[in-house]
Amino acid sequence: MFTNRDIADYYNQTLNHYQDWWGLNKNFAVHYGIWDTNTNNFNEALVNTNRILMEIADIREGERILDAGCGVGGSAFYLAKHRNVQVCGITLSEKQHSYAVKKCNELGVETHVNFKIEDYSQTSFPDNSFNVIWAIESITSSYNKEKFTKEAFRLLKPGGRLIIADYFKSKPDQEDSKNLLEKWRKLWTMAPFLCLPEYKVIFQNTGFKLSNERDVTKQIIPTAKRMYRSYLFGGPLAIVYNILFNPRKFARTHYKSGLYQYKALKRGLWNYSILLFEKPNNELTSTST
């Protein structure tokens, strides 16, 4: 089981990998890119992910957004620019936080965006603080998803939305003889994967209503291939680097994740889906009854 310290260490130790292989300094994204027929390059795919989630969540001008697991702030910057909203991004990683704050000041969006080091399952915010909670590929790190769902429910205003994009195990009893999912998740400090049905039950038991669901697995395949190519071309360099410099544990084996995620995807062991949950609007409910 990975602790919050482990998760922070993973992102601290691998930030330079995302800069070198993911174009972090240009797109500020650490998530999968979603491709469609109009997508010309990887940067556009990364932007697509933000755009698609923004549209599904129907984010509106003036709303308050919590980016739960904000990375280096790319989604927050995008939302502030395209919807004129207030965004607070939270992360466990000190390096991600420092990077995000620096970029926020450079972009001149500090009146709309701020960042904090916090655990999304136990935050310092008062009840009913946000219209939307945004979580791209972050809840998969939580071992106690019930705790997160209760915190998210507390933080959202009545009628608020929780938008999630994440990885899910395809079947509960699927054959994975090479333990590809297990190897991958350990390299990224993730909790064991859940299937979509059991995942949705956790959120619905807390009181959320599922209002939208979209499987975009086929659309992230080019991104998975890019990560696999990073393994093929970067792997030999990583091995030499490990011998010469003996990096810390997460940085040392990170390159292998490109192999495991792609092989597991090719075997149909996981899917990538977007889920939109809503917190019931009690005022509307009471008015109609």
Describe, in plain words, how this protein is organized in 3D.
The chain has a single domain (4-177, 191-218, 270-279), classed as Vaccinia Virus protein VP39 (Rossmann fold, 3-Layer(aba) Sandwich), CATH 3.40.50. 49% of the residues lie in helices and 18% in strands. The protein has helices spanning 4-21, 24-27, 42-56, 74-83, 94-107, 145-155, 180-187, 196-206, 217-245, 249-253, 257-266, 282-288, and strands spanning 64-68, 86-91, 113-117, 130-136, 156-169, 209-215, 270-278. Strands 3-2-1-4-5-7-6 form a 7-stranded mixed sheet. The model is unreliable at 283-289 (pLDDT under 50).
Order of helices and strands: HHHEHEHEEHEHHEHHHEH
* Poorly predicted runs of 5 or more residues: 283-289
What strand order characterises the main sheet? 3-2-1-4-5-7-6
Task: Let me know the largest β-sheet.
Answer: 7 strands, mixed
Instruction: Provide the β-strand percentage band.
Output: 15-25%
- Percent of residues in helical segments? 40-55%
Whole-number count of domains: 1
The CATH architecture name reads: 3-Layer(aba) Sandwich
CATH class: Alpha Beta
CATH homology superfamily: Vaccinia Virus protein VP39
Give the overall shape, derived from the CA principal axes.
Answer: globular
Query: Compute the gyration radius: what is it?
Result: 19 Å
Number of helices: 12
- Number of extended strands: 7
The rounded distance between the terminal residues' Cα atoms is: 46 Å
Write the layout of secondary structure elements.
Elements: H1 4-21, H2 24-27, H3 42-56, E1 64-68, H4 74-83, E2 86-91, H5 94-107, E3 113-117, E4 130-136, H6 145-155, E5 156-169, H7 180-187, H8 196-206, E6 209-215, H9 217-245, H10 249-253, H11 257-266, E7 270-278, H12 282-288
Parallel strand pairs: 1-2, 1-4, 2-3, 4-5
Antiparallel strand pairs: 5-7, 6-7
